[in-house]
Amino acid sequence: MARLPVYLRCLVEQANDKTTTISSERLAELAGVNAAKVRKDLSYLGSYGTRGVGYDVEYLLFQMSRELGLTQDWPVAIVGVGNLGQALANYGGFGDRGFPVVALVDADPSKVGTAHGKLSVRHIDDLPDIARELHVSIGIIATPAVAAQDVADRLVAAGITSILNFAPAIISVPPEASLRKVDLALELQILSFYQQQRAGGPHLPEPSGTAPARS
Amino acid sequence: MARLPVYLRCLVEQANDKTTTISSERLAELAGVNAAKVRKDLSYLGSYGTRGVGYDVEYLLFQMSRELGLTQDWPVAIVGVGNLGQALANYGGFGDRGFPVVALVDADPSKVGTAHGKLSVRHIDDLPDIARELHVSIGIIATPAVAAQDVADRLVAAGITSILNFAPAIISVPPEASLRKVDLALELQILSFYQQQRAGGPHLPEPSGTAPARS
DNA sequence: ATGTGTGAATCGGTTCACAGCC
DNA sequence: GGCTGTGAACCGATTCACACAT
């Protein structure tokens, strides 16, 4: 479920506030969902709540970190050192959360060897070596759209089966691999769509999911 | 619908390839969905297809651009000039697609006035002026999580009712505003979850939606 | 009393399948 | 013959509502 990480973040906040126990109602409020969903989601992890009381924050936190695989670091390689790739490499938010960026990779020979922060760019042909040496488990695709599928294939061939794709392209991977995508332009286009709707007469249904009404 | 921009991108590619007409089947393949979904989605825009033939690429492109509000530019302001904010500001991909970044905003007085590319940072208290002068229609939140809700409130108060939130926080906006979120750490956590599942014994259902099997 | 865990009802979105039009 | 447009069937996810544990 894509909501577990959200719960996790809320629980961390609560733990910092010395809260020892939390109800599904309260957690739902923090996570921006409803209480029944929280209970159903958490019940998949096992019966970690106490009826009449709620969930023990620390214990739930531990169980969830374990289930999410966050008790260890997952080294990340960024493929494509253009604007976006550099931006992501400089953004410190990954390493903080257990996803250290351990390699920058590009196909352009003129970029290979250039330094960005503590890392120097390596050639994509070395991907199998890089993956093995640095134990890379996640690959981030930050190339132009046309290269994205090829890069994905190379990542999988190198044994990197978790892929986050920032390129505006539909790519496919074999079933043993996982693929998520983040498409920045697409998000903006969706916003401009709704803005457009608000300006002219409404024709299509309202947004859903990511825009809860203020409570 | 969040799929319209994907169709749009596929249609642009086809138009560049001088393809004049396209079937729902072919478009579905390019967009990574199935044909029935394409037809249902496009039928919401109106009956723009021709039975027995398919859709006229140019005409559909025009209708979709209009519906998505992409016949005009939508100026963007980025709030929060930390690592992520700078990264997004330097990333050229927004302006190219009709979303020029026209303002950088921060609450830290020591950052105000510093230049990044062609823009210099302005103070968040000036947001109402900035919004009016530069016709900002979309605000990007790239602040730490704790500031996100406050920034959202200020954006809405300044008349910027389309918001893209990169901060790892659940925020809410009044119903007249639209909110989308991009949570990079969350995407990585979802990947690490599935990677973890593959390593240990599977307990939860497989991914869905973003990971089509290779055809 | 309070709040979880969970079957049952509900809902929205996806897929099927076919009538209708080129 | 081929492909769209769309009602109907389907399916997973959300929500309800309540028995049960503390």
How would you describe this structure in keywords?
homodimer, 215 residues, alpha/beta, Rossmann fold
**Number of helical segments with 4 or more residues of chain A:** 9
Helix content of chain A: 40-55%
Terminal CA distance of chain A reads 25 Å
Pair with the most extensive interface? A-B, 75 and 75 residues
**Total beta strand runs of chain A:** 10
The helix/strand order of chain A is HEHHEEHEHHEEEHEHEEH
**How is the CATH topology of the largest domain in chain A named?**
Rossmann fold
The CATH H-level homologous superfamily of the largest domain in chain A: NAD(P)-binding Rossmann-like Domain
Structural class of chain A: alpha/beta
Arithmetic mean of pLDDT of chain A: 92
Q: How would you summarize what this structure contains?
A:
The first copy, chain A, has 215 residues and is an alpha/beta fold. Chain A is built from nine helices and ten strands.
Question: What does the model show?
Answer:
2 copies of one chain form a homodimer. By secondary structure, chain A is of the alpha/beta class. Chain A folds into 2 domains: 4-67, Arc Repressor Mutant, subunit A (Orthogonal Bundle); 76-186, NAD(P)-binding Rossmann-like Domain (Rossmann fold). In chain A, 43% of the residues lie in helices and 17% in strands. A 7-stranded mixed beta sheet of chain A has the order 6-7-5-4-8-9-10, with helices on both faces. The first copy, chain A, has a 3-stranded antiparallel beta sheet with strand order 1-3-2. In chain A, β8, α8 (145-157) and β9 (162-165) form a beta-alpha-beta unit. In chain A, α1 packs antiparallel against α4 and α2 (24-31) crosses α3. The radius of gyration of chain A is 21 Å and the shape is globular. The interface between A and B is large, with 75 and 75 residues. Chain A binds a DNA duplex (22 and 22 nucleotides) through α3 and β2.
